[in-house]
């Protein structure tokens, strides 16, 4: 449909319509801008939310549980979703808003040009019409004057009283006006013809071109808005699969929550390794002073024997760390407020090789021996320990370098982790040493590249670090073997480029048999006796999860396999099983007996 033909007389209306169309385009651009702001704000708030719920340092130990891992996965996926919303905002801003701004600004300029062109054509036609009206009015005026002169001549000619000269004069004026009328008539005819030609050209050629420009501009505007709307949907649609993938990841993380696994992790994390306390003995107060309580013995022995404790270590005091005994000591502890003196700083010897494990003292023994048992080097070596008396109870709080202040199971894990960390650091330092040696060889072969002696200082420093780390590693290995027997193999130790005199094999199954009452029912020799290679099975067990053995002595298992149970878990988290002719250790939490 041709606007120039159908809307030939609606120039102003068409211009207003097109202006309204451009206003709509700007309104849509504003909508996109606000949508981008909302998406960006939403993404920012999501990222802030994710950041606020990131695990704190104090919660790192809990991150092993499946619920915490699932939540961290969901936070990670939510952070990715926030990134997709940022992508939506960026793409809409660049592909829609900015492009629409450029387009509509250009179209506004084009519309203004077309409007000015149409107005100039209209003004030219109006001038032509004004000229026509002017010639027409002049022709009309001259014709009326001519008619008046003609009537005057005829009047004078019929009047006998008028002289002939007056008649001739009137006749001459009449004929002169007739000539003027004829010229005005010709001018009017020419002006009319010119106007008709211009008007026909105006409405058939020139203005239709302007209308066609308006029509094309309006179609471009409509097509552009259509494209922007399609692009708007595509940008949103493009991120939906990614967001869906993130949501699927959240769902997978939620399905991965395993209460049985978390329960086994709680056992692994909190298991102390102590034996369950045995039955308490009957204390017969009628039998005499032999049945005094332990707290009474301690209360009366601390003051009476503090000088004896000091003199015990006085000969080698300068070589030992100290233990501070603080709190009300002497007399009745519950009612005394006596402040401790400097005499309560008791030097303790370093850890012996290896310490014996005496049975707990009884009421018949010397109270001092019982107290010395509590502060024995096995619990308080290489550190400061506070023995704090509150009312009638005596508490031992220690932070030992060998982790002897921890329960057996937790101490074993701490020592193993420390040994693994030292092994990794030694491997790292030895790799650095190899690099220095290799560089030294290159410099020696080609002195132009560098001075070999410049590497000596670095090599000595690395050697010193390795020696220090090896010494520390040997110390922790000795502490481990003294308390628990042979070391457990780990990937970090297997990959280290060094050897130690300690045999690497799965952890010994016999636990440390020290309970919270500090009882010792077995000696070190009885705890770590070697077992037969293939003992008689004591039952069967089923694998709950897949496990890939990464250490010597361990056995790989697959979910659903049934094994013969050779040795039960005695507190170290490992169970010995046999499948066919192969036997080894597997994590206790991975099987069901």
UniProtKB/TrEMBL annotation:
Give the matching Pfam families.
FCH (PF00611), HR1_TOCA (PF25610), SH3_1 (PF00018)
Q: Name one GO biological process term.
A: endocytosis
Organism domain of life: Eukaryota
> Transcription: present as a keyword of the record?
no
Q: Which UniProt keywords apply?
A: Cell membrane, Coiled coil, Cytoplasm, Endocytosis, Membrane, SH3 domain
Q: Report the residue ranges that make up the REM-1 domain in this protein.
A: 405-482
Instruction: Map out region (Disordered) in residue numbers.
Output: 340-365
Q: Where is the composition biased (Pro residues)?
A: 349-361
Q: Where is the SH3 domain?
A: 536-593
Family designation: Belongs to the FNBP1 family.
Protein name stated in the entry: Uncharacterized protein
Read off the lineage from the record: Eukaryota, Metazoa, Chordata, Tunicata, Ascidiacea
């Amino acid at each position: 449909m041709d606007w120039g033909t159908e809307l030939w007389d609606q120039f102003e209306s068409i211009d207003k319509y097109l202006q309204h169309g451009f206003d709509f385009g700007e309104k849509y651009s504003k909508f996109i801008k606000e949508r981008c702001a909302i998406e960006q704000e939403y993404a920012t708030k999501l990222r802030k939310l994710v950041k606020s719920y990131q695990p704190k340092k104090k919660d790192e130990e809990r991150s092993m549980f499946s619920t915490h891992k699932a939540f961290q996965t969901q936070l990670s996926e939510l952070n990715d979703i926030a990134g997709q919303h940022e992508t939506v905002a960026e793409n809409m801003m660049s592909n829609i808003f900015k492009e629409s701004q450029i387009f509509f600004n250009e179209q506004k300029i084009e519309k203004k040009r077309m409007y000015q062109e149409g107005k100039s054509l209209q003004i030219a036609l109006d001038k032509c019409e004004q000229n026509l009206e002017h010639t027409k009015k002049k022709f009309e005026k001259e014709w009326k004057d001519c008619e008046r002169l003609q009537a005057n001549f005829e009047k004078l000619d019929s009047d006998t009283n008028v002289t002939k000269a007056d008649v001739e004069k009137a006749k001459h004026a009449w004929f002169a006006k007739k000539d003027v009328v004829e010229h005005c008539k010709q001018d009017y005819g020419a002006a009319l013809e010119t106007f008709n030609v211009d008007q026909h050209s105006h409405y058939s050629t020139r203005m239709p071109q302007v209308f066609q420009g308006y029509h094309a501009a309006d179609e471009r505007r409509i097509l552009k808005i259509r494209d922007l709307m399609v692009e708007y949907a595509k940008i949103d649609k493009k991120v939906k699969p990614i967001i869906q993938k993130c949501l699927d990841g959240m769902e997978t993380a939620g399905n991965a929550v395993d209460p049985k696994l978390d329960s086994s992790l709680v056992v692994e994390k909190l298991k102390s390794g102590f034996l369950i306390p045995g039955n308490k003995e009957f204390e017969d107060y009628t039998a005499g002073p032999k049945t005094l309580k332990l707290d009474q013995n301690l209360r009366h022995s601390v003051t009476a024997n503090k000088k004896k404790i000091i003199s015990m270590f006085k000969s080698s005091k300068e070589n030992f760390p100290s233990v501070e005994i603080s709190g009300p000591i002497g007399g009745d502890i519950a009612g005394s407020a006596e402040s401790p003196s400097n005499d309560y700083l008791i030097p303790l010897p370093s850890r012996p090789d290896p310490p014996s494990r005496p049975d707990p003292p009884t009421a018949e023994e010397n109270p001092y021996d019982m107290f010395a048992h509590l502060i024995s080097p096995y619990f308080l070596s290489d550190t400061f320990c506070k023995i704090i008396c509150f009312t009638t109870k005596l508490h031992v709080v220690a932070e030992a370098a060998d982790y002897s202040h921890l329960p057996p199971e937790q101490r074993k894990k701490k020592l193993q982790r420390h040994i693994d960390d030292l092994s990794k650091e030694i491997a790292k330092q030895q790799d650095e040493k190899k690099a220095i040696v290799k560089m030294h060889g290159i410099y020696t072969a080609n002195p132009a590249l560098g001075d070999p002696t410049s590497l000596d200082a670095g090599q000595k420093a690395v050697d010193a670090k390795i020696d220090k780390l090896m010494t520390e590693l040997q110390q922790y290995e000795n502490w481990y073997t003294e308390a628990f027997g042979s070391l457990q193999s780990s990937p970090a130790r297997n990959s280290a480029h060094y050897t130690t005199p300690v045999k690497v094999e799965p952890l010994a199954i016999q636990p440390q048999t020290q309970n919270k009452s500090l009882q010792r029912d077995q000696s070190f020799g009885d705890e770590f006796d070697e077992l037969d290679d293939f003992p008689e099975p004591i039952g069967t067990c089923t694998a709950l999860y897949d496990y890939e053995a990464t250490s010597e002595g361990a056995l790989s298992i697959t979910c659903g396999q049934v094994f013969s149970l050779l040795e039960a878990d005695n507190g170290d988290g490992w169970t010995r099983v046999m499948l066919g002719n192969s036997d080894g250790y597997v994590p206790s939490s991975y099987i069901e007996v």
